[in-house]
Specification:
The protein is of the alpha/beta class and 361 residues long. The protein has helices at 5-13, 15-21, 42-51, 86-99, 102-110, 146-154, 188-193, 195-206, 216-221, 283-290, 296-305, 347-360; strands at 34-39, 57-62, 71-72, 75-76, 131-136, 141-143, 157-162, 176-179, 181-182, 211-214, 224-226, 232-234, 243-258, 270-281, 309-316, 321-329, 332-335, 338-339.
């Protein structure tokens, strides 16, 4: 790409205007500037820069950096695994300082910082009503909407991180547990060996204490995870089904409707989020239990499934119904769907009210 870069920048800078002309409401995006990547030479940069009109050009990164973040089936290798050598980070930092106008970028980032932010009307945390949420966070679990954690903090939560990989139990101070997504399949052996944590999570759910899990968290709460080699690793066993890895992903935006009251809110509430996973619930196991195939395992599964409710009605981004989801056992709720707490103005407050109500019951 050379002079055509100017056309791309122009298109993005006027995108909001075009939407308005088409009857779609939205503000024109505000650009602090443009930074070009993989630039071959100073002459290449000159041609790129001269093609851009009415948007500041802040610099570039050269092509010869040979800088790449490793990736796998769900995307980039996560930061918790330190995928980039310090020497590579130093090389990147040096290139940024050499070729990019950091001073202008910094000043642009601070413009309007005192203006009213759209989230400033969110409720302010009241210290005496605070509660504590133990959030699973380590190499196996790190996929969270940061907005979710911020909104929970605004609703009065103190976030306590813990590791299902290495800690012996859920923190004693916790009032609720939140297990997000991640790569439990790559750490299934280590998770399975930490039997004290598995027992702690199982006991927590059996006691009816609040627990919310998404995607990888659902896998962790199942009977076990079958990895890509079909090896089964035992998990917490809160839900009476196994999960197994598959070669093709299931992904897309989702809208859910709550059919029952739960930790996320009251019946009839609508929320939005997404799912993106390479695992699935072992339907063969459930079908065998439903068909009455007689063995000890299927009978236990059939009996246990009667205690589990599916409380989400789900639609995809086109409004098509995709079935039911959202598995609830007592006060544990788990799903493959990553729900965005910002999709409702009071979702975090309802979460907080549920936790505090359960804590004082």
């Amino acid at each position: 790409m050379a002079e055509s870069a100017g056309a791309v920048v122009k298109g993005f800078s006027e995108f909001g205007i075009r939407n308005a002309e088409c009857g779609v409401k939205g503000e024109n995006p505000k650009f602090a500037g443009v930074i070009f990547n993989r630039v071959a030479s100073e002459n290449h940069y000159k041609r790129l820069k001269e093609s851009v009109i009415n948007v500041p050009v802040l610099g570039y990164l050269p092509r010869d950096l040979n800088f790449e973040i490793p990736h796998r089936h769900l995307g980039l290798t996560i930061a918790e695994e330190n995928p980039i050598a310090f020497a590579s980070l130093d090389k990147l930092a040096d290139a940024v300082m050499t070729h990019i106008d950091i001073d202008t970028l910094y000043k642009s980032g601070n413009q309007g910082i005192d203006e009213k932010h759209p989230h400033q009307d969110r409720c302010i945390r009241i210290p005496h009503s605070a509660f504590r949420i133990a959030v699973a966070y380590d190499k196996a679990f790190s996929f969270y909407y940061e907005d979710n954690l911020d909104l929970l903090r605004d609703a009065g939560a103190e976030i306590i991180r813990f590791s299902p990989l290495s800690d012996p139990a859920i923190p004693d101070a916790a009032d609720a547990v939140y297990i997000g997504g991640g790569y439990p399949e790559f750490h299934a052996s280590a998770l399975s060996r930490n039997t004290s944590m598995l027992g702690s999570v199982s006991a927590w759910a059996d006691a009816g204490k609040p627990l919310y899990a998404e995607c990888g968290g659902l896998m962790y709460l199942s009977q076990g995870i079958r990895d890509f080699d079909n090896t089964l690793f035992a998990m917490a066993g809160v839900f009476p089904f196994e999960t197994r890895m598959m070669k093709k992903p299931r992904l897309g935006y989702r809208e859910i409707v709550l059919n029952e009251d739960c930790i996320l809110g009251i019946r009839g509430e609508k929320y939005r989020g997404h799912e993106f996973h390479y695992s699935e619930i072992d339907e063969i196991q459930l079908q065998n239990a439903d068909c009455g195939m007689r063995n000890e395992k299927t009978e236990r599964t059939a009996h246990a499934m009667r205690a589990v409710l599916e409380i989400y009605s789900v639609r995809d981004s086109h409004g098509r119904e995709t079935g039911t989801e959202g598995y609830r056992f007592r006060n544990t709720l788990a799903s493959y769907i990553h729900v965005h707490f910002g999709s409702s103005s009071h979702m975090a407050q309802q979460f907080a009210a549920f936790v505090k109500g359960e804590r004082t019951a």
